[in-house]
Amino acid sequence: MEALISCNLQQSYEIAIAPGSLDQLGEKMTSLQLGKKVLVVSNPTIFKHYGDRAINSLKTAGFEVYSCILPAGERFKNLNSIQKIYDAALENRLERSATIVALGGGVIGDMAGFAAATWLRGISVVQVPTTLLAMVDSAIGGKTGVNHPQGKNLIGAFHQPRLVLIDPEVLKTLPVREFRAGMAEVIKYGVIWDAELFAQMEASKHLNQLRYIKPELIETILIKSCQAKADVVSKDEKEAGLRAILNYGHTIGHAVESLTGYRLVNHGEAVGIGMVAAGQIAVELGMWIKEETERQNALIQKAGLPTQLPSGVDIAAIIDALQLDKKVKAGKVRFVLPTQMGVVTVTDEVPADTIRQVLQAM
Fold first, then answer.
1. Which of 4, 12, 174, 177 is the most buried (most CB within 10 A)?
2. Known catalytic residues?
3. How far is it, in rounded angstroms, from Cα 60 to Cα 27?
4. Does the pTM exceed 0.85?
5. Over the chain, what is the mean pLDDT?
6. Residue 1: per-residue pLDDT
7. How many CA atoms are closer than 13 Å to the CA of 252, on its beta-carbon side?
8. pLDDT recorded at residue 45
9. What are 344's strand-pairing partners?
10. Is the pLDDT of residue 48 over 70?
11. 223-270 pLDDT, tens per residue?
């Protein structure tokens, strides 16, 4: 299997999906006519598994390679970590022709991308995602950034990669909980864009562990999710309109993440909770039928994701946190709400009482 998907923007790029493609990283980058210096940004766990392979591939292709290893975890997705990347860039004299390679999950991808967007006012970045969540979502589309203590991804920039290289084989070392987190984003694509993908996942007996899922379904999940993300981003690169639908489940999800200090629930778990809430809000507002929200919630559970709020999370605090969301416009919180499977709408006409009522029932 090898799939090539184009993200058609002013500077288009390829999303290459193929088993074993990590060993072709250097070769793929050579064709992009980049400068010789490359800084690989990763975390200790991923670097231990895949650092040597990535670096050997780059060196074989004639690149001069340096590395910057950052601590793992969402709580390190901050400006202190960006400073470490800048320090490594300065120490190794990264010029404008240099490239940063993000080898890791969504946290590494977002930080490496933001550092690339801002070092010397912008250098190239290549995304090599190693988690399901990064493969299907965060590595594609050029959103980069870090968290502020009071909110997720409040500091950032749009900076498209030159290449996204996806090697499905690296998922074999992904912890089960992280695999499930990625499934939340895949389910999201089914609800907002691709009803056929949703039905294919419904037909699978298992969704909560890679080893129980047929390889053909994993291939379908990667190709269809990447295609959905590329389609949406190609139509609306900087979230002027359509791209906002990719935030389905994220509005309440981000509030839950930040209120639990990015430690109790991971991003995918928070999105699962957020999708349950958004689906129920749509039902309460008469936009979606109850049977469809039940289908969605059953799939979220099948993927081993939570459908209830973590105990002890204050509902009033969630409603307050929604005001800090990046998508707030003129003080109104914008929600992405489903109207039928594969179709959603964006609205800022959701009464606070409805949000409160739905959260209390969770």
1. 174
2. 121, 143, 185, 229, 239, 243, 247, 250, 254, 267
3. 8
4. yes
5. 94
6. 66
7. 31
8. 96
9. 338
10. yes
11. 999 999 999 999 998 888 899 999 999 999 999 988 888 788 999 999
Give the CA radius of gyration of the chain: 20
C-alpha 48/C-alpha 44 separation (Å) is 6
| Sequence-separated (6 or more) residues with CB below 8 Å from residue 182 | 131, 132, 133, 134, 135, 136, 137, 174, 268
Residue type, 140: I
Token pair of 244 as six digits:
């906002």
Residue 76 has pLDDT above 70, yes or no: yes
| Location of structure tokens 């007996």 | 205
Q: How far is CA 333 from CA 35, 324, 328, 337, 350, in A?
A: 43, 9, 5, 12, 8
Tokens of 130: 């190693």
Mark out the alpha helices in the chain (DSSP H runs): 25-30, 44-46, 52-60, 79-91, 106-118, 132-133, 176-192, 195-203, 215-235, 250-259, 267-284, 290-302, 315-322, 352-360
Residue 141: partners with Cβ closer than 8 Å, 6 or more residues away: 7, 160, 229, 230, 232, 233, 237, 243, 246
pLDDT at 179: 97
Residue 231: both structure tokens together: 């389609």
Q: What is the rounded CA–CA span in Å between residue 38 and residue 103?
A: 12
Structure tokens at 221: 């999940």
Q: What is the DSSP string of 276-343?
A: HHHHHHHHHTTSS-HHHHHHHHHHHHHTT---SPPTT--HHHHHHHHTTSTT-BTTBPPEEEEEETTE
Residue with tokens 């409805």: 354
Give 168-191 as a DSSP string: GGGGGGS-HHHHHHHHHHHHHHHH
Rounded Cα distance between 104 and 112, Å, is: 10
Sign of CA dihedral 84, 85, 88, 90: negative
Place of tokens 């419904």: 202
C-alpha closest to that of 250 among 281, 275, 226: 275
